[in-house]
Amino acid sequence: MRMFVDVNESLKIAMSAIVANKARGILTTLGIIIGIVAVTTTMTAFNGMQTAFRQGAAAVGADVIYVSRMPWIVMNDWFEYRNRPNLSMDEADSLRTAFRGRAIVNPTMNSRRDIKYRSSVQEGITVIGTTELLPVVTNRLPEFGRFLMSFDNLYKKPVVVIGHGVAEGMFENVNPINKEINIGAHKFRIVGVMEKQGGSTFGGPDFDRQVFIPISTFLKVFGGRRSNDVDIAVKAASMTDMEDLEYEVIGEMRQIRKLRPSEAEDFSINKLDSLMGAFNSVVGAVLAIGLLVTSISLFVGGIGVMNIMFVSVTERTREIGIRKAIGARRRSILLQFLFESAIICLVGGLIGIAAASGITALINSSGLMPASNSPTILTAAVLISVLVGVAAGFVPAWKGARLDPIEALRYE
Questions:
Q1: Residues in domain ABC3 transporter permease C-terminal (predicted)?
Q2: Which residues touch 167 (CB under 8 Å, ≥6 apart)?
Q3: Which helix (H) or strand (E) holds 20?
Q4: Which of 234, 302, 397, 409 could be a cystine partner for 337, CB 3.0 to 4.6 Å?
């Protein structure tokens, strides 16, 4: 009961002191506001980058294994990978035969070409030669029109399905279906437009600036040296089969390439997990550095609060002496100043959260990345504000609580 009375009394005195010194309180919170804005915006940006990356990488497929000549992420030994032999269509066919009835195998080839429709030109578009199985492997579907069919590949038809960004850039409000475009020097008839996937994510592929043609047509018109550069996607029957499937794919590819047991693989297995792991490692390191830097502003804000609290204790030394003379305990004085510094920082933190929410809304509306303040971030910001207040106010409050009442009453 006594403890409750002390807390209640200390809280009232702290609130009265803050209200009596509004201007000083507002100026004191500036450092905390800046610190909370910096920390909250950094965390929001990190979450936004993760969300944008996940959305962009969703087209890769979490249950798909990609067999390629090169790994998606090369940290070192680039020359070793560079000297590997390309994957061929014959190897893709052999792998498809080996997994018939157990997994979906889809080969793709790609090349960058300029695309032209009348006077409109799109430069550097990724042209992908593939089969009708690509939507099954990647879950990417046409928004309207159709995707490639088996007979398109069988008869090497000059048809194309264009990405959403390509359609917007070349046709605006015109229906592109059945229009003819030039890919390089060859004419193709548009049969479908893919759903919007989102822009390029941090240097990754821009799925909206891709077009798809039958892989047999690709070999026919863009053959030659490129005909041996194939990527093979293998989709598992379920997520639980992924680990077993990976071992099986490696085993089959070793047999197809006639590798001896002592020889290392001369191909790479790529998965969404490895891509996410590399992304999280890099962005996690950037986040740690960002939080370290932004925490400095919060530390400076805390120093400002501590300085003001020392001034407050000094100015109210006689008040402390009077309170002690009429029976106030040390803990009452300690709580009074701790509450005062904690409330100042809490108010600064709430203002900082409001400012950070405005910045987050601006980032979101700009289309740079999807950004939102999660309840976890907001709760953490409030707790950090209060903890900074307690830490910054403890030493001044301890000094005030330890004052001798006689000496405090004599203070002028």
A1: 293-405
A2: 176, 193
A3: helix 2-20
A4: 397
Instruction: Tell me the C-alpha distance between 181 and 121, whole Å.
Output: 10
pTM reported for the whole predicted model: 0.68
Do 89 and 231 meet the contact criterion of CB atoms below 8 Å apart? Answer: no
Checking if the pLDDT of 152 tops 70, the result is yes
Q: Where are the alpha helices (DSSP H) in 270-374?
A: 272-315, 317-325, 330-366
360 half-sphere exposure, CB direction, 13 A CA radius: 26
Token pair in block for residue 287: 């986040």
**pLDDT tens column, 101-116:** 888 999 999 988 999 9
What's the full length of the chain, in residues? 412
CA distance 388 to 303: 9
Sign of CA dihedral 131, 132, 138, 142: positive
Q: Please, are residues 121 and 115 in contact by the beta-carbon 8 Å criterion?
A: yes
Residue 29's closest CA among 328, 410, 350?
Answer: 350
Instruction: Name the strand (E) or helix (H) holding 87.
Output: none
224: left (phi over 0), alpha (psi -120 to 50) or beta: left
Q: What are the helix (H) ranges across 99-204?
A: 134-138, 150-154, 164-171
Cα dihedral 204/62/106/68 (nearest 10) = 50
Tokens of 382: 């409030």
Is the pLDDT at 8 greater than 80? The verdict is no
Q: Strand (E) positions, 163-218?
A: 180-183, 186-194, 210-214
Would you say residue 376 has pLDDT above 80?
A: yes
Query: Looking up tokens 């933190």, which residue turns up?
Result: 349
Show the tokens assigned to 361.
């809304």
For residue 364, the model assigns a pLDDT of 79
284-330 residue pLDDT tens: 887 788 788 778 888 888 888 898 888 888 888 888 888 888 877 88
d(CA 106, CA 145): 22
Find out whether 194 and 143 touch, Cβ atoms under 8 Å: yes
If you write DSSP's letter for every residue of 194-228 in order, what string do you get?
A: EPP--S--TTS--GGGEEEEEHHHHHHHS-GGGGG
Asked if pLDDT for residue 191 goes beyond 90, the answer is: yes
Q: Which of 352, 323, 351 is nearest to 337 (CA)?
A: 323
Contacts of 305 (CB under 8 A, 6+ apart): 28, 31, 32, 341, 344, 345, 388, 389, 392, 393
